[in-house]
Structures are given as C-alpha cells and as structure tokens.
C-alpha cells in the first residue's frame, strides 16, 4: 500500500480467460470466441483447456456402458495437439493439460480449482458458448462454479444466449459473475467438421490450416467412431 500520499504502483491482477472444450476438432468458432472475449475483457492470456474425459459426450449410461458408440471422442493427445497447432500463432493463447492429465470424468469445477492453484493471483474468466451455458445446471457441482471464476457467455448461431435458468442462483452473487457477449456468428461445429472429414468434404477455412493437415495426417474421423481408440470403453 502507498503510505506517502502517492498512488499505489501495485500491478493489477493478471486477467486469464479459460476456454474449455472437447475440441474434436478445434475450429474457428472457438478461436473467434476466445479472441473476442480477450479483446472485450482486456485479458492478458486465454488458456485453452481440452477435456480429458468429457462425460456428457461419451454416449455412455451412468454405469459406463456404451449406449451410443457413434459418440466416441478422439484420443486426448490428438485433440490436445490440434489445439496447440490452432493457437500457436497467437502470443496471448496457450494450452493447458490439466484436464487431460487428471484421471476420471472432466468437471469444470476441477479445471477451475487446478488453474486457481497454478495462478493464485489471477482473475479467472471462464468462456462458454450459449449451448454449453444452457446446460450448465447439469454440470458437476454447478452451484459452486460461480465462486471460482467470472463466467462469460458468448453467442452461438442456433442458440439463445440467456441466463433465465440461473436467475435465482445468480441473484445473490455480484453482477459481474456472469456476463454475456455477442460475438461474430460462425455457424461451425466440431460435429459438422467430423462429418465433413468422414465424407471427404473440405474443412478448409472452418478449422485452421494446420488442423486440416493434422486431420489428414492422422486420418482422423475417417473410420467409424466405434472402432477408433478414443476414450470411450472398448
Ligand atoms: N461456433 C461457435 N460459436 C461460439 N461458441 C462456440 C462455437 N462452437 C463451440 N463453441 C463453444 O466452445 C466451447 C467448446 O465447444 P466444443 O469443443 O464442444 O465444440 P462444438 O463445436 O460444440 O463440438 P460438438 O459439435 O462436437 O458438440 C463450448 O463452450 C461451446 O459452446
Ligand atoms: O463440469 C461438468 O460436469 C461439465 C459438463 C459438461 C461440459 N463441461 C465443460 O464445458 C466445456 C465445453 O464442453 P463440451 O463438452 O461442450 O466440449 C468444457 O470445458 C467442459 O469440461 C463441464
């Protein structure tokens, strides 16, 4: 604290965005979302965090039995490497392995706790698309999430960006707990990119060039998902 009547020169806390996703594959919708939030919220860095075991995307029932084999997710290392390739040219973007190195299902509550431990002084901003925000009440320990970071909901074509379902819970929290941001509309999804790659249709300009090349090199999304060595049960 300044004691001589001068203004304190203590630097402001580092502002870190967290872009969580399965990134199977990462596409330009993810990158634009992170870039827009970084600009509008004056973030110093955005950390992309590929999921380890995205439990809601595995097509499994509660006992872990595969009930929809078409929903198997690509190996975490492939998704991680595509994320590194896609973000490499932006000095403000980085990629974390916290979710892929933690065992078991991936829960955002754990992601935020791990990143808080790694960045104890930082202000954290978790970035989520309108579709993910819509289903946040189904996330593990969702009630505690809003105490761990600010949340930024971003628009996405085909989804309404709102927090009506959270109104009761957010009422008792500071107004900057959840903020909404309209971003340029890119109607791109990983599901569509996978379907295109599977049928030999182009994914150029939907995903970064290096990711197009990585998908081709690793022959991702070509074989039926049931036979790929993903993270769902064999
Ligand atoms: N086109 C987009 N515009 C804005 N946000 C997006 C867009 N695509 C994905 N997101 C957001 O990015 C995060 C990670 O998304 P994810 O990796 O599941 O991609 P996806 O395209 O939704 O994948 P899939 O089609 O396999 O469900 C989520 O918060 C999601 O809402
Ligand atoms: O915490 C949970 O239970 C939870 C359930 C579903 C999704 N999430 C997180 O939401 C982010 C986007 O996930 P997804 O599945 O849409 O790629 C990613 O960071 C996930 O870990 C988190």
UniProtKB/TrEMBL annotation:
**Which Pfam families does its entry note?**
CTP_transf_like (PF01467)
Checking InterPro entries in the record gives:
Cyt_trans-like, NadD/NMNAT, Rossmann-like_a/b/a_fold
The Swiss-Prot or TrEMBL record annotates one GO molecular function as:
ATP binding
Q: Can you cite a GO biological process for this protein?
A: NAD+ biosynthetic process
The pathway is: Cofactor biosynthesis; NAD(+) biosynthesis; deamido-NAD(+) from nicotinate D-ribonucleotide: step 1/1
Which HAMAP family does the record associate with it? NaMN_adenylyltr
Return the similarity comment: Belongs to the NadD family.
Name the PANTHER family on file.
Answer: NICOTINATE-NUCLEOTIDE ADENYLYLTRANSFERASE-RELATED, PHOSPHOPANTETHEINE ADENYLYLTRANSFERASE
NCBIfam families recorded: cyt_tran_rel, nicotinate (nicotinamide) nucleotide adenylyltransferase, PRK00071.1-3
Q: What protein does this entry describe?
A: Probable nicotinate-nucleotide adenylyltransferase
Species whose genome carries this gene:
Gordonia mangrovi
């Amino acid at each position: 604290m300044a004691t001589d009547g001068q203004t304190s020169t203590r630097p402001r806390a580092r502002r870190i965005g967290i872009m969580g996703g399965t990134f199977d594959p990462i596409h330009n919708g993810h990158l634009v979302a992170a870039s827009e939030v970084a600009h509008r919220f004056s973030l110093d860095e955005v950390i992309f965090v590929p999921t380890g075991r995205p439990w809601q995307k595995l097509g499994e029932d509660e006992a872990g039995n595969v009930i929809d084999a078409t929903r198997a997710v690509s190996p975490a290392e492939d998704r991680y490497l595509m994320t590194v390739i896609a973000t490499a040219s932006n000095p403000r973007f980085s990629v974390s392995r916290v979710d892929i190195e933690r065992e078991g299902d991936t829960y955002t509550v754990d992601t935020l706790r791990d990143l808080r431990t790694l960045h104890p002084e930082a202000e954290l901003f978790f970035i989520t698309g309108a579709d993910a925000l819509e289903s946040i009440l189904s996330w593990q320990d969702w009630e505690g999430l809003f105490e761990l970071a600010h949340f930024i909901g971003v628009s996405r074509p085909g989804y309404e960006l709102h927090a009506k379902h959270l109104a009761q819970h957010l009422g008792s929290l500071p107004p900057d707990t959840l903020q909404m941001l309209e971003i340029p509309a890119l109607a791109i999804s990983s599901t569509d990119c996978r379907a295109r790659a599977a049928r030999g249709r182009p994914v150029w300009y939907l995903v970064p060039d290096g990711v197009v090349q990585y998908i081709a090199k690793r022959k991702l999304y070509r074989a039926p998902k049931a036979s790929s060595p993903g993270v769902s049960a064999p």
